[in-house]
Write a structure and sequence with these properties.
With 340 residues, the chain is an alpha/beta fold. 44% of the residues lie in helices and 11% in strands. The longest helix has 21 residues.
């Protein structure tokens, strides 16, 4: 088991690398001295592709990694690497999962089928009410709710789950210590008090930048068995979550409130027209009450974990060994030149 070190967190901060490539780099460098010898060309070789990196400063990344580790230790933030037993198995099997998750609170049990509830930040009053009611219904059926803590539908979904004493997870598009919007701090506190979770792949202190939110949407759908869009207009960011859901093989649904007339529901109506199933309550998620997953969950059967995809662990293995050998040669040559 690789320990959580500044090197581990420094590798995570190399945003141009995919998950498997980060694992390969970590395997190759292992130590701070090994990481310090990295440069852009060596990173490209271990990735097996050309990387668009404007600048690369190993020393600065190591300092940032040290700070990340201190913050997490001080504030009780857990760090879950992709290979750890606590990492959500459904998320692990997606294409390019997060290399690690920063976690506050308790994530849902790995065998509990979760449901993402997402939608527009500017919903109709009917959609607000239905989002809260639907999430409460999910909680009543023992189904954890996943959303993004954003204004609008996300917030109502989290509130509905908490009100019904259910489990809910918020996936952030910022550092785990940077809640956005700030008006949802009290809601986040209620979630943690109810044994829910707040997770992020972004290091502490990361601001909520616009391009982070499409990326976090892949985590929302990746954690979930079902993805339900409540209401979304055309070009809504929630539709990106729908795209990820389809790519990841999740069951995409539209709530009945989202097929109403008007521009506020144009995006969800289009999904329905394209074949997304319409649901109104938690029981509608199961097309057949005898569905095996429903029967297992309802009976409290906790067997059958999801096996991680093999391809992720294989990415870059040989290149990692090559880079490790090259770094060793560089170190030895430097020692000879300096008479050490």
């Amino acid at each position: 088991m690789t320990p959580i070190t500044p090197v581990f967190l420094a590798v995570h901060r190399i945003t141009s690398l995919r998950c498997g490539e980060k694992e390969a780099v970590l395997t190759a460098v292992r130590t701070e001295s090994g990481f310090s010898m990295l440069d852009k060309d060596r990173l490209s070789r271990v990735a097996g592709r050309g990387l668009k990196i404007r600048s690369f400063d190993p020393a600065a990344l190591l300092r940032a990694g040290e700070q990340d580790l201190r913050i997490c230790e001080t504030r009780g933030i857990r760090i879950l690497p992709v290979w750890s037993t606590g990492y959500p198995p459904l998320l692990r099997e997606t294409f390019d999962p997060p290399f690690l998750l920063f976690v506050r609170g308790e994530i849902a049990p790995p065998d509990a089928p979760q449901c993402a509830v997402v939608g527009t930040r500017h919903p109709s009053e009917a959609a607000r009410r239905e989002a809260r009611r639907f999430a409460s219904d999910l909680a009543g059926h023992g189904i954890p709710v996943v959303s993004g803590l954003a204004a609008g539908i996300d917030g109502e979904a989290h509130r509905g789950a908490v009100d019904a004493c259910g489990h809910t997870t918020a996936v952030l598009g910022s550092g785990i210590d940077t809640l956005y919007p700030a008006s949802h701090r009290s809601l986040a506190g209620r979630m943690l008090e109810s044994d829910g979770a707040i997770v992020s792949e972004y290091p502490p202190g990361t601001p909520p930048l616009k391009h982070h939110f499409p990326q976090r949407n892949r985590i929302i759908s990746g954690l979930s068995r079902w993805v339900v869009l409540m209401e979304a207009p055309e070009h809504s960011g929630a539709l990106i979550t729908a795209d990820y859901a389809l790519d990841q093989g999740r069951e995409l649904c539209v709530h009945s409130v989202g097929v109403s007339a008007g521009p506020a529901a144009a995006g969800t109506r289009a999904l329905s027209d394209e074949g997304a199933r319409i649901v109104a309550g938690a029981s509608d998620l199961y097309e057949d009450p005898a569905d095996s997953a429903y029967a297992e969950h309802a009976a409290g059967n906790r067997g059958g974990s999801v096996r991680p995809a093999h391809s992720r662990a294989d990415i870059g293995t040989l290149l990692a060994r090559s880079l490790q050998h090259e770094l060793a040669l560089t170190h030895n040559q430097g020692s000879t030149l300096h008479g050490n």
